[in-house]
Amino acid sequence: MIKESNGKISDRLYAVGNPDLPAFLLPGKKPALFEAGMTYMGPTYLKELNALLGDAGHLRYLLLTHSHYDHCGAAPFLKRKIPGLQIGASRPAAEILQRPNAVSLIRSLSQDPEERSKLMIGDEDISFHCLEVDLLLADGAELVLGDGDRVRIIATPGHTRDALSFYLPEWKTLIAGEAVGAFDRYFNIRPEFLSSYDDYLASLERLAGLDIQILVMAHSYVLTGEEARGYTARSIEATGRFKKRIETLLDRWGGDQEAVVKSIFKEDYEDAQAILQDEEPFRINLKAKVKVIAEKK
């Protein structure tokens, strides 16, 4: 089954926020939140955490899949609001989130969504600043949350070099960020190999070996049952097809990466209107994917 990332996902997992920018709460003895969306979602997350936990102050961990603005944006807000909250991320992500140029890019990409969401934000200070990571999450480590809950850390580079996925073995649930790609408007799988095609494919093949009953996607959807179990294999196939598409266009345009970007943007964003993403970040990501394949040829 494919369903929106909204409300109760299972007896042990809840989506908070909106389906496009969800965070995922695992309640229990040591509650953990996975992902932190965009900056403007902070007040919404806090409100829903208060409702689900009785007091958002009970939240112990915020675990980040990677350092993109739409996955870590509300982390500084939540850390300011919840004393003792521990932020967990990979070592590369921890380094990126301290860099002034990275912080500047996150703030820049967050500006338009913040302007569109002023009523939601109110008077809250949602500003993004350098973020200190408290827990450096290493590949293969496990975080024990009590009540039988464990979080297995899996390094899944390729979308970004700092990317992690989180596997809950007791519940056969995978929270994968964009290591598994994303759906477009028509439920086609969009590969997201921004930093390395080979690493991205290797990460997908590694995740394909897991027993998955629930697959939590980065945006909009959660997959269960057969849809969840078969997804990584389909994503591997879609990744190979998109690589071939880029290679064909590079040959057609004599290696001109910008021409390839324009061609795919027109076909997918303008003509088919398939993309569930703002134009600027889509262009940035598409340029990165074309560059990865061009340099690989």
Q: What is the total domain count?
A: 2
Strands ordered across the widest β-sheet: 1-16-15-12-11-10-9
In sequence order, what are the helices and strands, one letter per element? Answer: EEEEEHEHHEHHHEEEEEEEHEEHHH
Mean pLDDT: 95
Question: How big is the Rg?
Answer: 18 Å
**CATH architecture field of the largest domain:** 4-Layer Sandwich
- CATH superfamily caption of the largest domain: Ribonuclease Z/Hydroxyacylglutathione hydrolase-like
Structural class: alpha+beta
Uncertain spans: none
What about the largest sheet? 7 strands, mixed
Q: How far apart are the first and last residues' alpha carbons, in Å?
A: 38 Å
* Individual helix count: 10
Question: And the CATH topology of the largest domain?
Answer: Metallo-beta-lactamase, Chain A
Helix content: 40-55%
Number of E-type strands: 16
The fraction of residues in strands falls at: 15-25%
CATH class of the largest domain: Alpha Beta
